[in-house]
Amino acid sequence: MLDVRSCASLSEAAGIISGDRQALLIAGGTLVMREVNEGRLTEGTLLRVTDPAFRQVNASGGRVEIGAGVTMAMVLANRDLSYLHAPARGIGGPAIRTMATIGGNLFAETPYGDFTVALLALGAEVVVQAGYGSGRAVPLEDFLAGRERGGQGLVTAVQFARPQNPSEFLFRKISRVKPKGISVLSIAAHLPTSGGRLVQPRVAYGAMAPVPMRARGVERALDGKPLDTAAIQAAKQAALEGTRPATDAIASDWYRREILPVHLGRLLAGEPR
């Protein structure tokens, strides 16, 4: 049977999760409660965290930290996070956004997890607390690679460097039902420039691999170049490098490969959806 417990602190919750592999955190419940309601999760412990730190946002400085319990609606209400409003708005409808959390999105299976794609493009780190010790920051890419194995501890927050120019962060979600449909794919790009040339751009995809992925071929094609027609064409030619899309009820792997370069080119060129 399922047991439900409330934890007054993140340390308490982290201690329980470290000692009980069947314990799961429940924040907004958009993922966990679906498993419960559909009968796939019938045993273990569900943990609620009431620690205010779980829902804190520190976004006005050079280093941004967002608590794992922060909802998409809270992101949308925060002006300092305006560059993340597009990916937050792409998560379900208004009712879902009041429940769906940043931390929960990190565990969403493909083709969900669009907000995580945005965090990956921003070079985010995941703050993980194991037991009653202090938290440690893990690169999001590494966290995703080990996500299925579990045992990493309690996710308490995400951190990343604030974009110096919010207009250099781009996001696009392609779905059949707008604005809240399940993703055919999603693309996020952080494109810092210096002297008219791109400097260490980061591009990420959703629904193009088992977990959100970096588009390293695209990054290499763009790095050091002005964002002109030639650079965009080179990026499109490298768009499919490393991708492993699946066929599901939303789209086939063939279709995802066909449309990815098209939408990547439109995003980089600043064309409307």
Short description:
This protein has 273 residues and is of the alpha+beta class.
Notes on the structure:
- Strand 4 and strand 5 form a beta hairpin.
- Strands 4-5-8-6-7 form a 5-stranded antiparallel beta sheet.
- The termini are far apart.
- It has helices at residues 10-19, 32-37, 72-76, 85-89, 94-97, 102-105, 114-121, 140-145, 216-222, 229-237, 253-269; strands at residues 2-7, 23-25, 44-49, 57-58, 63-67, 125-129, 136-139, 154-161, 169-175, 183-190, 193-194, 197-198, 202-206, 213-214.
- Helix 9 runs antiparallel to helix 10 and helix 10 (229-237) packs antiparallel against helix 11.
- It contains 11 helices and 14 strands.
- The mean pLDDT is 93.
- It folds into 2 domains: 2-107 and 124-160, Uridine Diphospho-n-acetylenolpyruvylglucosamine Reductase, domain 3 (2-Layer Sandwich); 168-269, CO dehydrogenase flavoprotein, C-terminal domain (Enolase-like, domain 1), CATH 3.30.390.50.
- With 273 residues, it is an alpha+beta fold.
- Helix content is 30%, strand content 24%.
SSE inventory with pairings:
Blueprint: E1 2-7, H1 10-19, E2 23-25, H2 32-37, E3 44-49, E4 57-58, E5 63-67, H3 72-76, H4 85-89, H5 94-97, H6 102-105, H7 114-121, E6 125-129, E7 136-139, H8 140-145, E8 154-161, E9 169-175, E10 183-190, E11 193-194, E12 197-198, E13 202-206, E14 213-214, H9 216-222, H10 229-237, H11 253-269
Helix pairs in contact: 9-10, 10-11
